Amino acid sequence: MTDRLLITVCLGCLGALIGFAICSRMKRRAEYFADLDGFLSVFSDSLAFTLDTVPGIMKNYATHTRLLQKQLEACADAINSGEKADLPSGSLSREEYTFVSRLLCDLGSRSVPSERSAVANYRQRLDGYAVKAKNSYERSGKVAVKLGFLAGMLTAVLCW
Amino acid sequence: MSLSENLDSEKLWEVRMRAGRPVTVWYAGKGYFLTRSGLSDDAGAAILCGAEDIRSCVIGASEHSVYAYNDDINRGFITLQGGIRLGICGEVVTDDGKILTVKNYSSINIRFPHEIPGISKCIIPGIVSNLQNILILSPPGGGKTTLLRDLSRRLSDEGGYNVLIADERAEIACCKGGVPGMDVGVHTDVITGSNKTHAFECAMRSVRPDVIITDELFGAADAKIVKEAIGCGVAVVASAHASSPESFAQREICGALSGVMDRQCFITGKSGKMTVTEINYRSDG
User: In this prediction, does ipTM exceed 0.90?
Assistant: First the structure.
């Protein structure tokens, strides 16, 4: 009996952990898009004032998420070496990854007014992804933990 | 194929890329076509350059930040690390006479700068002990900038003069990020990107140079500021384009500088050899 109880608790915790991982992933995605928007905001400021180069801004931007940090580093290195950028995709969907890759690789290929307008367009589209990711996290994040716990318990009960 | 790995960089002077045309290379004093296996005289084997290749080169040269280099591109060039210079041709977009940008790049010319330490000793040997106002004349590619660069180094290092280079097109000191790409001497200051009037005024008011070095004098405004500098007691060593001493005499700037410079030297450089013709010498200078 004690063994069964222990297994039930363990499976419940395991389910909750899986749910928590899913929840964290959703949270990271929401934070990632906010971080990317922050980067574009800094880039826009640079267009208005200092006109720093794209690799310079990418290297100096203080990221809040690891995925964006890796992407910016990869992109800056690719620009400096003249090679094609191979960005990590992390928890992004294929559509989101395509959008982000195009965005980062496209920065800096125009004059100031065109660049400003392009960045504004990108930020508008990015806002759609950001809202979706945020809503998804707020709506489903905690539910995922609970469902994971319940699924673990259910599995344990079925195993009895 | 990497040009720098496969060719002797000392002999490499120029690479020209034109949309839809073969890539040409000026190497060891002779023009070649660039092929997959190296340099060749055969145009049929040459690598053809597309408009997208040229665009990629310009974007790459601008560190993927065309907006940051837009003023340079509008002026027709980008200066790269080590003084390498990318001349750009394309369609100029203007608004009410003001150049906004350049689009549809049609060709680029990548020029590799060279230093020839001591070259000025052969041409103007006594300048360190007897500082004079000198105008150097030459056709394009004749070696004016190389000579000015060496003069700057000598006046600065050997003469101990405070030298200021008014480097409008970043050709003499080849500054990138504020650091000269060429050896122009330890006592040398560089103002890059500014027109000559502004650079000379800044220099005379705040930098206290003994000598100002500048290239490509053009028009009455340049002549006026040179006169001002000399009047203020600052020596000027400058260059100007001229296909021959006679053709220079026809130019407006020749009349405007009449009696101002102590010496005028006409130089021609071909296949690494430089010859000089003294046009006049004002002994009272």
Answer: no
Which chain A positions have a beta carbon within 8 Å of B72's beta carbon? none
Max Cα separation, chain A? 73
Q: What is the pLDDT of residues B191-219, one digit of tens each?
A: 988 899 999 999 999 999 999 999 999 88
Domain end residue (candidates: B95, B111, B127):
B111
Residue in chain A nearest B93 by alpha carbon:
A111
Strands B21-22 and B48-49: antiparallel
Q: Indicate the number of domains in chain B.
A: 2
Domain with B226, as residue range(s), is: 119-281
CB contact under 8 A, B65 and A110: no
For residue A42, is pLDDT > 60? Answer: yes
* Chain B residues touching residue A108 (CB < 8 angstroms): 59, 62-68
Could you tell me which residue, B6 or B14, shows the higher pLDDT? Answer: B14
- B148-161 pLDDT, tens digit each: 999 999 999 999 99
User: In this model, does residue B221 exceed pLDDT 70?
Assistant: yes
From the list B59, B68, B100, the residue facing A52 with the nearest CB is B68
User: For the domain that residue B60 is a member of, what is the CATH number?
Assistant: 3.30.450
Residues in chain B: 285
Question: Do A54 and B64 make contact, defined as CB atoms within 8 angstroms?
Answer: yes
Arithmetic mean of pLDDT, B175-188: 90
Last residue of a domain, one of B87, B111, B135: B111
